[in-house]
Amino acid sequence: MRLRKTFAPLVVILLAGTLAANAQPESQFLETNYYLVSLGQIGIGIEALADSAQTAGYTLIEYDGNVPTVSAGGDLTTQTVSEALDDEMVLMVDNDRFLLRRALPEYEYAVRPSELGYELVISPLQGVSISDTLTSILLSLQELGILGDAIDFDFATYAKDDLKGPPPPAEARIDSALYKLVIAEDWYAYAAANALDLTGLRVEVVAEKLPGGSIPEAFEPYVVEESDLLGKLLLPIDELVALASAESIGYVRTAYVPVAP
Questions:
Q1: Does 54 fall in a domain?
Q2: Three-class SS of residue 124?
Q3: 3-state secondary structure (DSSP) of residue 248
Q4: I need a surface site. Which of 53, 66, 198, 258 has the fewest CB within 10 A?
Q5: Same-domain check for residues 59 and 117
Q6: 179: left (phi > 0), else alpha (psi -120 to 50), else beta?
Q7: Residue 164 confidence (pLDDT)
Q8: How many domains does the chain divide into?
Q9: Is the dihedral of CA 126, 84, 139, 39 positive or negative?
Q10: Residue 28 near residue 128 (C-beta atoms within 8 A)
Q11: Is residue 169 part of a domain?
């Protein structure tokens, strides 16, 4: 399905009507796949989103630097991050980025950072109508103030049981495990299964610099350690492909973990 729209808040309702009118009755999101829909840039501020999400009953995971707190209804809880991520409605705020997840009986969805701004992840638990599902999700997001400025319904489709996955873009010199994280259905589940170290919406990586190269200025705030040849970064997941495509970087990989003899 190909449909691209740039719109103001109330036009979400008109877009939903267009989807319902154009979609064929048999057009479904399948439970064997998950789908990524680009939303473009999101206009709402993080603080305003946190307020509206908590009012709507979302559990809030908020990072101050690398230290998380978990709250519900405005009150701090004793939940760990991993426990909070199992809640049905969760908002994670990591500095200037957010991830919102909601679980429903028929499907789960998430809004998370991407190269182009934010993307919508739809994970059906059974076959569901494309038009009905998108309409419901978009209206729910509008109620929270989450509105993309360039929704692209030429969405990407991935099989849930495809262990290999697509290759990284040709210009991105990146470990395949890290690229699979970028497009994974669930960042935290994938990271846990593949021994990747996440802090909020950031992942620990090593950038191998080309001779005479340096970490590009845009990525310097994420550098943890650096030598002449290597840079260790705690990098937002949505920035992985951009770093791996930089001219001064030869390869982006996971940090090697020493194994005891």
A1: yes
A2: strand
A3: coil
A4: 258
A5: yes
A6: alpha
A7: 86
A8: 2
A9: negative
A10: yes
A11: no
For residues 221 and 216, give the distance between their C-alpha atoms in angstroms, rounded to a whole number.
Answer: 10
Q: What are the residues whose beta carbons fall under 8 Å from the beta carbon of 177, sequence distance 6 or more?
A: 194, 196, 254
| Cα–Cα distance, 257 to 245 (Å, whole number) | 25
Q: What is the per-residue pLDDT across 72-105, written as a single tens digit (0 to 9) for each?
A: 998 999 999 999 999 999 999 999 999 999 999 9
pLDDT tens figures, 28-52? 999 999 999 999 999 899 999 999 9
Summarize pLDDT for 199-246 with one digit per residue, the tens.
Answer: 999 999 999 999 999 999 999 999 999 999 999 999 999 999 999 999
CB atoms within 10 A of CB 155: 19
Number of helices (H) and strands (E), helices first, in the chain?
Answer: 7, 17
Looking at the fold, whether 24 and 89 belong to one and the same domain comes out as yes
Residue 260 lies in a domain: no
Do 27 and 111 have their domain in common? yes
Q: Which one of 159, 185, 218 terminates a domain?
A: 159
If one counts every other C-beta atom within 10 angstroms of the C-beta of residue 25, the result is 7
Four-point Cα dihedral 140, 95, 80, 193, nearest 10: 80
Q: Is 227 exposed, middle or buried (0-12, 13-18, 19+ CB in 10 A)?
A: exposed
Note the helical H segments in the chain: 11-22, 46-55, 81-84, 130-144, 176-183, 187-193, 240-244
**198 plus 241 within the same structural domain:** yes
Nearest CA-CA partner of 33 in 168, 159, 150, 222: 159
- 3-state class of 53 per DSSP? helix
pLDDT of residue 16: 53
Closest to 199 measured CA to CA, from 172, 161, 224, 234: 234
State the residue range of the domain holding 223.
176-254
